[in-house]
Structures are given as C-alpha cells and as structure tokens.
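Hi, does anyone understand the following?
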Amino acid sequence: MPKTEESSESILDQIIEIYGDEIDLYILDGFDKSIIGIDENSGRIIYSTSKIINEIIEESKNSGDKLTYNEAFEHFAYNIQGGSCGDKTPIICYDIF
C-alpha cells in the first residue's frame, strides 16, 4: 500500500520496499528527490523535470557555481534528458507549464 506524504521514506525507498528484487531499476544518480513514481507496466522510474532542474540549481549553489534556471535547464536537456539505457531508460515527465 502506498505511503502518505507524511512518510519520512523517500519515494525510491518505497518503490524498493514494494517491488524489492522483482524489477531491475535504472536510477539517475543524485536525483532521488526528483522521483515521482514508477510505471508498473515497464518497471521504469518516473522523474519530474521541474524537480530535476531544482535539484541541479540547489547542487550548483552548494558547489559555488550558482546556475540560473536557464543554465540548469540546458544542463538537464544536454546531460540527462537525451540519455538512453535501453528498455530501462527512466521516464522523464515534463511538468513545466
């Protein structure tokens, strides 16, 4: 049963708890907070574009680079969005409207 938003477990932790070793997950390193779910048919992790971009911006602040939104979006588009890992490639949900 899915946990409520009050749970301290991350969505990734919940997915692993529910599915365990049943599926082989491909996870984008460093973007666990950007996971919004899983496609049960394919076993692919679903990521939020807006959350990924926000994580890139926050990480850039921590490293001293301080990327703008447009720079973070460009980094996302060039380094993450176009990547392919075969049939386990994560789904990137475009949720910027």
